[in-house]
Amino acid sequence: NQAHVYRLSGDYNPLHIDPESASFGGFDEPILHGLCTFGHCAHLLLEGLCGGDASRFRRIKVRFSAPVFLGETLQIEAWADGENRFQFEGRVDERTVVSNAYFEFE
Fold first, then answer.
1. Distances in Å between the alpha carbon of 26 and those of 14, 18, 35, 39?
2. Nearest one of 70, 57, 68, 62 to 93, comparing CA atoms
3. Side-chain-side CA neighbours of residue 72 (13 Å)
4. In terms of CB atoms within 10 Å, which of 33, 89, 96, 103 comes out highest?
5. In this predicted structure, what is the pLDDT of residue 21?
6. Phi, psi at residue 55, to the nearest 5°?
7. Which of 10, 17, 18, 34 is catalytic?
8. What DSSP element (H or E) covers 73?
9. Which CATH number goes with the domain that contains 68?
């Protein structure tokens, strides 16, 4: 379970695993940890743009614009913004969840 694994990062916020705590945060259900969303974005871009070669990675920036809920499918759309830089967005269905983001590599 992704939500429980990310507790190992030291973030024990129950918002990510407990429905009651999520409701106090204004959500109908627990939300996926931002670090997990970030990791999925980085992994997809590293594989797609660098052939999985982490030594080519230089920088990534993301803005979380909406929550991802457990079990949802994250999709990335990326476009070139220079020779070694791609802008990208993360979406769940029609909802933009990662915006104003870029990935730089060599």
1. 13, 13, 20, 24
2. 68
3. 22
4. 103
5. 93
6. -70, -15
7. 34
8. none
9. 3.10.129.10
**Is 28 among the residues known to form the active site?**
no
pTM, rounded to two decimals: 0.86
Q: Is 34 a catalytic residue?
A: yes
Please tell me the total number of residues recorded for the chain in this structure.
Answer: 106
4 is catalytic: no
Give the integer Cα–Cα distance in Å for 46 and 99.
18
Catalytic residue among 31, 33, 76, 90: 31
What residues make up the domain containing 96? Answer: 2-105
Catalytic residue (choose from 4, 11, 25, 81): 11
How far apart CA 72 and CA 90 sit, in angstroms, is: 12
Q: How many domains does the chain have?
A: 1
| 26, two tokens | 């204004």
Q: Is 31 a catalytic residue?
A: yes
pLDDT digits (tens, 9 = 90+) for 44-82: 999 999 999 999 999 999 999 999 998 899 999 999 999
